[in-house]
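Exercise 7.
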Amino acid sequence: MFVLATAGHVDHGKSTLLKMLTGMEPDRLPEEKKRGLTIHLNFLWADFEPFGRVGFVDVPGHHRFVGNMLGGVSEVSGYILVVAADDGWMPQTEEHLLILKSFQIRKGILVISKVDRVPPEAVSQLREECLLKINSHLGTRPPVLNFSQHIPESTIELRNEITKLLSDLPKPHNNKSPRLWVDRAFVPKGLGVVVTGTLTSGSLHEGQPLSVWPGNKSATVKSLQSYQTPQQHVGPVSRVAVQLSQISHEEIPPGSFLSGAPFCTHDKCDGTFHFFSKAPKKNIWIKAYSGTLETECLIIPTSREQETVGRIQFSKSVPLQFADRWVLRSHGEELLLGFFVVRDPLGRSANQKMLKDLHTDQPVTVEALLHMESTLEGSVSVKEVATRSRFTEEELTSSLNGLQFLEASPGVYIKKSVLESGKAALLEVLSQNKSVSLSRLPNGLLGNFSPRFKALLAAFGSDQQWWTFSGDEIRENLGVLSSAEQTGLRQLEKPPGIWSRLELIREGVPEETLSTLIKRGLVISLKGELFISEALFQKLAQSVEAFLKEKGSATTSELKSVLGGVSRKYAIPLLERMDEMRLTFLKGGVRQLLKKKREG
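Solution. The predicted structure, written as tokens, is:
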């Protein structure tokens, strides 16, 4: 099912076109009929085979009612842009086109209306002018139709073009979690509260519980209508009228939001700005529109470029989801400034660099969402992420399983690379301290991750027997090695007992395994890219210590025999490492034990 919206300047024939197309009267209010222009949103429909019933939103074309227009087009599938042949491209036409761009509505039809009033060559010239402007903003050249209410064939041709458009539109995303912005709420005689809106995702059915914003209230679907026809079940994209129980009319003003699943609300968010001219000044309140909601916000860009990243601070908490789009408009002159694409609904970026790294040039996909959550939190909670995105828990889990993530606990995933870096960081600390309090880890050791990630990593590592974890305390556990680590350690213990990096790689010991063994304190790195097992090194150090206690001092040549007769290539790095460990010291070409060692 689909919903299309008109766009265009006032008095260019949008309402007339829809009346001929649907046989319905668009202007429903006496004030609109009297003034001959659309003030509020009007909704009509017609049947198109094989697509069934298609909805149409007739939006105001007058500059003063652009706010109403914004509430009508944000949730539609495509557009019908109407330009009068005798009037041409007008400022409101341009503004409506920019609004379509803001909400990423790129597919539609260009209708040149009132073609009977001008010569054919003028229509052709206007046609090319309009196509150039549309292509410059939307990157497409839509089909064009000449239209006049005095030419009966116009309506037939328009129906044919709409049918072609419908076959080209992507199917709506039905994730079973309904999302509905309310454009009207009223109380018909003999009924309870009824709200109307465009259902863009998910499904509604009788008896369904819904969450309502503002106010964190609940309601239940008592009955449903779509295009004045009673329904037990409605899917996207559809115009719907929903009778609700357990809630009053006053609790659902226009701009309210209904959802069939928990959703996120916040007063700030991070994302990308797209300005149509230069960025407005900071610390000035402007208007922001999403769905049918109009509110106020401050924009906090990181630069004054055409497209940049930054933060929006709203005047109140509002419903926010990943990939939502907000149109920005100034006060006073009410100029269209641009639009904002939400990336992080919670505004968690700690600094400008993180903002740029996370959001610049990143696609708005589930993969980008999961990468962002992993970067900000260290882990991904499927239940939490579902509340701040349009993806269900099932969709998120499926994507995580297809990427490089591991399920560390039920419903919580860690990226494999993050897991390994976190493991290595903790092992390095534990190799020096043997135990550490999780709450007292050095700042930045595990990145800017949340306490949940630290606790999750500690618990997961305990399960994998990398360490023991009790309460807040982590202790080193050297008793269990992976098969790769066991193989690498056995290779290092083979003669000659001291190995170069290149020799180990040739023997099948990966650098990653060698690095892990060093961080765990099981392998000691010597100068000259040489490596020895910690156990063998300690054995050699004890032999050197015993020899020097007896002799008092010794040259390198004398100590070579104590070290098993190794060459100077190996003896010197071994003895220098013992110097670094303050077991010995070199003076006048001979080595001695440090005083504290001799006295011990």
